[in-house]
Hints:
The complex is a heterodimer. Chain A is an alpha/beta fold.
Amino acid sequence: MKLHEVQKVLGASQLWGQHCLEREVSTACGADLMSDVLAFTKEGALLLTGLTNPQVVRTADVGGLSAIIFVRGKIPPPEAMEMAKELDIPLFSTPHTLFAACGILFANGLKPCPPLVGKTIGN
Amino acid sequence: METEEQGLLLEFPLEHYRFETAGEASSKIKQVVRQLGVNAQTARRISVCAYEAELNAIIHAYGGRMRVKVFSDRTELEVTDEGPGIPDIEAAMREGFSTAPDNIREMGFGAGMGLPNMARSADEFQIKSSKEKGTWIQMLVRY
Lengths: 123, 143
């Protein structure tokens, strides 16, 4: 799925990153815990979240994510927007809840991230 | 930034509860290794190691330091702090175990995945911690 298709099915407004609409995404993750995002996503995944602080954008950069969708119509604060511009992370805002937004994308063919990436560790 | 032997040395101070700049070091490290030709997936592993260590120090430690050495075949990361130390490392290595307070969880941290994420992303991971000396973490990622 391309980002402009994601934007369309979620009825999302684009907050930043017009030049990235042709970017292809194949997996997505819905989470509000940033270390879970880093544990469960792989390079190029899409993040859906209800958190809007700048660390969400930082996490997307560290994790090599393709874009962030803020749910329930949330708009991030200016410092998060600035960071997204600096790190070139596209941002969208959808009126849907996290659950509904994930469901819509799943129904449109986006896949969940694999259970765990990287090597296993002793637990 | 200075060269040491054949590697590139980067150093970053880590300050308790300084969230405004949290993660800047990790973004910088990722940028540097990418520029040196390290592939995106490996750069991500290095960056995850750095970011989790950075956040841990900012959230839990009085203050610390991250030293990163980038070589042609590997990156080494060493994170040291001034305490208070991790009382039970075995518990802290368990996924989901967290001692982060509520205000930290509200920011999206404290999932209890920090140390496991470091151990999983690095090829080599070592940790030592004591009340007296604080915590020392060394990680190595090969390309």
